[in-house]
Amino acid sequence: MPINFPSALPAAKFLQQEKIFIMDEERSMSQNIRPLNILIFNLMPEKEKTELQLLRLLGNTPLQVNITFLDTATHVSKTASKNHLESFYDTFEHIKDKRYDGLIVTGAPIELFDFHEVDFWVEMVEIMEWTKTHVTSVLNICWGAQAALYHHYGIGKYTLPEKCSGIFDHIVHDSTINLTRGFNDVFTAPHSRNTSVSTEAILAHPDLELVSESPEAGAFIIVSKDGKQIMVTGHLEYDADTLATEYQRDLARGLDVQIPSHYFPNDNPNEQPINRWRSHTHLLFSNWLNYYVYQETPYEWQ
């Protein structure tokens, strides 16, 4: 949250140079506060696990957050119960006239399909276009990040020689970027995907900034210059055992998959993995809610 103190204090100029979030007295007296309205477009097959992961993170801030879950109308889930979806999820037709302070678009296990082959792609495009006027900031995760990069910025994805799965080190290029405020210069994060995006294309795009990348896993956090679109190509929201569950699932399907990199102790799948990314996950979500949603969204949508 912002620091409010007399603007003439000598420390103020140094804090401003470091881009520490400060607020002058006039603005602090005029602030109106209300709950944030966050929409979650949950495309993951195991809906309830993803719900728990995201709600745990959104609930770890001083801000009151109202949650709405969104499901596709043009795709029928094979793994989520119809009763669960009907009880807790809306479709776009029911929410399209509302405005939201933030939207989270999750990943989906469909990355090997061309975007236009996805059965709900037309609906996805409609929603992405709708966010331009109805959402303050969008946090796109994994496949959601690739979809946003493709639709908004014309940056496609490509298939990797083998699945990128594991826990990788990431470098923060600019520690003054609000989204990574408080991050270590190097931090770990999970990835689980068969496709990737071009780092060179991101760096060359005038509307994007590459905030963080991994020497092994590639581009990780990308932010649009206006803060409207945030793309995270990995899965900071994952629990400690999520990659292990995915690995065992792929083995059971008879797939030729490698052990997730830097994940199991001693690279032994029989040993219990530990969560080495939790603190940075909480930082990313709280920074997004504060700097890109709460501080930017209008008190009353026009």
UniProtKB/TrEMBL annotation:
**Could you say which residues are annotated as the site Important for acyl-CoA specificity?**
E111
Membrane-spanning parts: none
Show the GO cellular component annotation of the record.
cytoplasm
EC code(s) of this entry: 2.3.1.31
Domain of life where this protein originates: Bacteria
Q: In which pathway does it act?
A: Amino-acid biosynthesis; L-methionine biosynthesis via de novo pathway; O-acetyl-L-homoserine from L-homoserine: step 1/1
Q: Which UniProt keywords apply?
A: Acyltransferase, Amino-acid biosynthesis, Cytoplasm, Methionine biosynthesis, Transferase
Q: Please classify the protein's predominant subcellular localization into one broad category.
A: cytoplasm
Q: Where does substrate bind?
A: K163, S192, R249
Q: Where is this site: Important for substrate specificity?
A: S192
- GO MF, one example: homoserine O-succinyltransferase activity
To which protein family does this belong?
Belongs to the MetA family.
This one is known as Homoserine O-acetyltransferase
Which organism encodes this protein?
Kurthia sibirica
Q: Which gene encodes it?
A: metAA
